[in-house]
Amino acid sequence: MIHILITSHGGMAEGMMQSVKMLVGEQEHLDYVTFGEEMGSDELDELYGEKITSVSPDNQYLVLCDIKGGTPFNVVSRYSFKNEDVAVIYGMNLPILIEAIVQCGNPDIKLKDLAEYLQQQSGSTIGLSEL
């Protein structure tokens, strides 16, 4: 099973959770962590440790972060450096999150394949509205 954890500075991750619920309903294996203004990296790491548990090939985690190089990305990336059953993607947006949820419905999907697929799809999730 692949769990999806979304994380961001401020309320972005929580807002995305609300949007997902509105668009595709409650998702059992979706959770979020918010990096608040008054938090330090140690406190943030504790929150990730509470969410990313019992990691194994049967219990994998896809983490979607807001931006590369930010504290949430830097802290949670340590989990992926230590364990191939955790993958971290930066540049999170709502279309990619929904696509990840849909793809996780396939019981045969592998974390590495899912992460590569989402990275390939990311270019099609933004565009310019033209008449």
TrEMBL record:
GO annotation (BP), single: phosphoenolpyruvate-dependent sugar phosphotransferase system
UniProt GO molecular function: kinase activity
UniProt keywords, alphabetically: Cytoplasm, Kinase, Phosphotransferase system, Sugar transport, Transferase, Transport
Pfam families (alphabetical): EIIA-man
Transmembrane as UniProt keyword: no
TM annotation in the entry: none
Gene3D superfamilies for the chain: Phosphotransferase system, mannose-type IIA component
GO cellular component, one term: cytoplasm
Localisation: Cytoplasm
Chief subcellular location: cytoplasm
Residues of the PTS EIIA type-4 domain: 1-126
PANTHER family given in the database record: PTS PERMEASE-RELATED-RELATED (PTHR33799), PTS SYSTEM MANNOSE-SPECIFIC EIIAB COMPONENT-RELATED (PTHR33799:SF1)
Protein name as it appears in the record: PTS EIIA type-4 domain-containing protein
Species in which this protein is naturally found: [Clostridium] citroniae WAL-19142
